[in-house]
Design a protein that fits this description.
Blueprint: H1 17-39, E1 43-49, E2 52-53, E3 67-73, E4 77-84, E5 89-96, E6 99-105, E7 108-115, E8 118-124, E9 128-136, E10 139-147, E11 157-163, E12 166-167, E13 178-184, E14 188-195, E15 201-210, E16 213-219, E17 232-241, E18 247-256, E19 264-272, E20 283-290
Parallel strand pairs: 2-10, 12-18
Antiparallel strand pairs: 1-3, 3-6, 4-5, 4-9, 7-8, 8-18, 9-10, 11-13, 13-16, 14-15, 14-17, 17-18, 19-20
Length: about 290
C-alpha cells in the first residue's frame, strides 16, 4: 500500500472475537447478581423474643406475658405461623408484602370446649417447651419458645337469660327493650354483642372490667348510631375474659319485630267555639297520622 505524504495508518481497536464471549458472560452474571440482591431471600431473620413468657404476666418478678415473633420477607407471599409442642395451633395465615413483620403471641389460642353453661373460646396453653414455625415462599424456619405456668383458670358464666325474647323498639313503651342477665364468679372483662343473620356485629356493651356477681345489660334494638336495627332474629353473645386470656362465651336468641323511630304527622287541628265568653269552655280536636 502506498501512503500519500503526511498520511498515517492506524490499527483497529476492536477486540478479537474470542474476547467478546467472556465480556458478555461477565455482563450477564452482573445483571443476575443485581436481581438477586434486589429481591432477597423469601424468608429471613426469624426470631422469637423473649424466649420465655408467662401468659397474663406484667413482667414484674416473672417472664413477660408477650412474645414478639419477627421475620422478614423478600417478596409478597403467603405466610403461615404455627405453634408446635404440647398444644398445636395456627397463629397466623395470610398474604403479606416484603419487609419486616412482627406477630404478638400471648400464650393464648382459639378453643371450642364446653365450660358448664358456656363455651370456652380462648384458652391459655399449658406450660412447656414449644416451637414457632414460620413458612413463606417455600421456605420454613423454626424458633424455640418456653411457656411458664399461668395464674388463673377459665371464669364461669352462668344463668344467662334474655327477657323478653322478642322486642319491638318503636317508642310505644311496650317491650321496647330486653334485659340480658348473667352471673360471673370473678373480676373479668365482660362484653355483649348482637350478631345478625349475616354475621354483622352490633356492640351492646363494650369490653368493661366488672366484678363478680349478678350482671344485667339492656338491649335497646338500636345500633351505635342510635338507629333502629332491622327486624329479624339476632344472637346475643356474652363474653367473659380473665387477665390470663381465658375467654368463655354464651349466646341466646333475641327477636326484633315492629321496630322503628316513633313519628307522627298532624293532619288537622279544630278549635271550637272560635269565640269564648268568660267561664265558657272550648273543644280542641287534633287529627294525627302515625308515620313511625
Amino acid at each position: 500500500m502506498t501512503l500519500l505524504p503526511g498520511s498515517t495508518t492506524s490499527k483497529s481497536t476492536r477486540p478479537p472475537l474470542h474476547t467478546l464471549i467472556p465480556m458478555w458472560l461477565f455482563a450477564l452474571a452482573a445483571l443476575l447478581g443485581a436481581c438477586t440482591v434486589g429481591g432477597g431471600a423469601a424468608l429471613s431473620g426469624v426470631s422469637v423474643s423473649p424466649g420465655t413468657i408467662t401468659p397474663g404476666s406484667s413482667g414484674i418478678g416473672k417472664a413477660p406475658g408477650v412474645a414478639q415473633v419477627g421475620y422478614t420477607l423478600g417478596e409478597r407471599t403467603h405466610v403461615t405461623v404455627t405453634l408446635g409442642g404440647p398444644v398445636q395451633a395456627a397463629l397466623f395465615s395470610g398474604e403479606q408484602g416484603p419487609g419486616p413483620h412482627l406477630l404478638r403471641f400471648t400464650g393464648v389460642v382459639d378453643a371450642s370446649e364446653p365450660a358448664g353453661e358456656a363455651t370456652l373460646t380462648r384458652r391459655v396453653v399449658p406450660p412447656g417447651d414449644y416451637t414457632v414455625t414460620v413458612e413463606a415462599g417455600g421456605e420454613s424456619t423454626t424458633a424455640p419458645l418456653r411457656v411458664e405456668q399461668a395464674q388463673g383458670s377459665p371464669p364461669s358464666l352462668q344463668n344467662v337469660t334474655v327477657f323478653p325474647g322478642t322486642i319491638s323498639p318503636n317508642g310505644d313503651a311496650v317491650d321496647d327493650v330486653a334485659e340480658i342477665t348473667f352471673r360471673t364468679n370473678e373480676t373479668a372483662t365482660v362484653s355483649v354483642d348482637l350478631y345478625g343473620s349475616g354475621g354483622e356485629r352490633i356492640a351492646v356493651l363494650a369490653p368493661d372490667r366488672t366484678g363478680p356477681g349478678e350482671q344485667n345489660v339492656v338491649v335497646t334494638g338500636r345500633d351505635t348510631l342510635d338507629e333502629p336495627l332491622p327486624d329479624g332474629v339476632y344472637t346475643a353473645t356474652v363474653s367473659v375474659q380473665d387477665p390470663a386470656g381465658y375467654r368463655v362465651e354464651a349466646s341466646r336468641a333475641i327477636t326484633i319485630e315492629g321496630g322503628g323511630n316513633p313519628d307522627l304527622e298532624v293532619l288537622s287541628v279544630d278549635i271550637t267555639p272560635q269565640q269564648l265568653i268568660l267561664g265558657g269552655e272550648i273543644s280542641v280536636t287534633i287529627r294525627v297520622k302515625n308515620t313511625g
